[in-house]
Design brief:
With 457 residues, the protein is α/β, with parallel strands linked by helices. The chain is 28% helix and 23% strand. Bound molecules: zinc ion.
Length: 457
């Protein structure tokens, strides 16, 4: 910032870059689908050529194909999460441009199987910040207002009853509204602790996982709690059901804005400012929605979500099958040319039920993975007092008695209750018709039905 200049702000460096991107995004959202597609194709060719010539995985898989030729695009094989995990260093570029800045490693956190690891750059981070600003602009958020978040914050961070308090919402708005109040509570808390905390903090905005929001909204209604300052709820990280959206409006009296993103690629779709459908940020990612035969789905059809990251030159993800499903939408009446998704059918969580009826969002995968080696696991709750961990062992490393004891102890500690724990060793875990694994399933009853019970599309 130049000396003696307070207003209007004269930003330099990374903030200036973010604002320059945000200004371009403000214009490009109104381009026609054809214009967007033309510009996207230019960037797509650059990243595809880079992947084809500097990344071992694509050199092997694309032999004889030209990934920059739109006519051959559909012949490029999809890359699954399992492929990314198996590829390891063969997904890294041997020569990424130095001016893309510092490299960070991103590790997906909330999966029951092995995490997906990718590298990202400062270019990717700048795009993420600009899109975050677009989302704030679309939904008319006051960047100086009080934001509360209930999410995973790391072990022993932001514990109930008080959580943690800080200034600034995060990197995207740090330079623009450095003093905005921010309150954080670990998602590793009970629904009642969350409701008590919200009533005390009384935020203007709340950011939360959909399954957690559903439970909070029910408790708020049952207990007659009021959150007088709340203006808007923002959901992240899981598939949102229509029920939860309706419940938010009824119980909390405010609109809900949903975002579809993934740690390894950032934003994939953001809610339209005028409707409850989503726009794909075509300036940042190519999202293909494909049927079982690999052909693009039309409006109203549900297919698998296949993502190409246009700007990650460190770990290029080209035609990455992220494991979610989405329904394609018709062009949006709001006038934006960005592609439309009607709904996302992805991961959903069940809520854990304690014997006294309390509910909580179970966090156990990190603790279990530290307790014993295994391929993947699933936690099943049959009654309010008992849980069952179904574990698939490595072929060369069976689960022994010590592992069982360690897993049971890790579960009781991370669920904060002395549950009856059974460890069940299985050859495989059943997946939904869409191929998804539910990492936690509860059949315990709270007397209220949980709208987040089903995860299959
Ligand atoms: Zn729209």
């Amino acid at each position: 910032m130049a000396q003696g200049i307070a207003w209007p702000a004269l930003h330099g460096g990374a903030t200036a870059m973010t604002l320059a991107l945000a200004w371009q995004l403000e214009r490009s959202q109104w381009w026609t689908p054809d214009e967007l597609r033309r510009h996207q194709q230019r960037q797509l060719a650059l990243v595809a050529r880079h992947a084809a010539t500097t990344v071992a995985l694509y050199e092997e898989r694309w032999a004889g194909l030209d990934p920059t030729d739109p006519a051959q695009w559909h012949r490029l094989p999809l890359v699954s999460r399992a492929d990314v995990i198996a590829a390891g260093p063969r997904l890294l570029s041997r020569r990424y441009p130095a001016d893309h800045g510092r490299i960070d490693e991103v590790r997906t956190s909330r999966t029951s199987g092995e995490p997906v690891r990718v590298r990202t750059t400062e270019v990717v981070h700048a795009m993420w910040k600009a899109l975050t600003l677009r989302d704030h602009a679309w939904h008319r958020r006051d960047l100086d207002a009080h934001l509360a978040a209930i999410r995973y914050a790391g072990p022993e961070v932001a514990r109930p009853p008080d959580g943690a308090r800080s200034q600034g919402w995060g990197p995207a708005t740090a330079a623009l509204a450095p003093e905005a109040p921010m309150s954080l509570l670990s998602v590793d808390s009970t629904t009642d602790e969350q409701v008590d905390w919200l009533a005390r903090v009384d935020p203007v905005y709340l950011i939360v996982y959909p399954s957690v929001l559903g439970a909070i909204a029910r408790r708020v209604a049952e207990r007659g709690v009021r959150l007088p300052s709340l203006r808007q709820v923002r959901t992240i990280s899981e598939a949102l059901s229509a029920d939860t959206r309706a419940l938010c409006r009824e119980a909390l009296g405010v609109p809900l804005v949903d975002t579809y993103s993934a740690e390894e690629v950032g934003y994939l779709a953001m809610q339209c400012p005028e409707r409850e459908t989503y726009h794909v940020p075509a300036e940042r990612v190519l999202v293909e929605v494909l049927d079982d035969a690999g052909a693009p789905c039309g409006p109203g059809e549900v297919g698998r979500v296949v993502v190409t990251d246009l700007h990650n030159f460190a770990s290029p993800l080209v035609r990455y099958d992220i494991g979610d499903y989405a329904e394609v939408g018709a062009p949006c009446p709001c006038g934006r040319g960005l592609p439309v998704l009607n709904r996302i059918v992805g991961r959903r969580r069940n809520m854990l039920v304690y014997p006294d009826g309390r509910t909580a969002w179970p966090l156990f995968t990190v603790a279990c993975r530290e307790a014993a080696p295994y391929v993947e696991c699933q936690l099943v709750q049959d009654t309010a007092g008992a849980v069952r961990l179904r574990v698939v062992p490595h072929a060369d490393r069976p689960i022994d008695e010590d592992d069982r004891a360690a897993l049971a102890a890790a579960l009781r500690a991370s669920l904060h209750h002395p549950f009856d724990v059974a460890i069940e060793v299985v050859d495989r875990l059943a997946r939904s018709p869409a191929g998804k694994l539910e990492e936690f399933v509860s059949y315990a009853r709270t007397g209220i039905t949980n709208s987040c019970d089903s995860s299959s599309p």
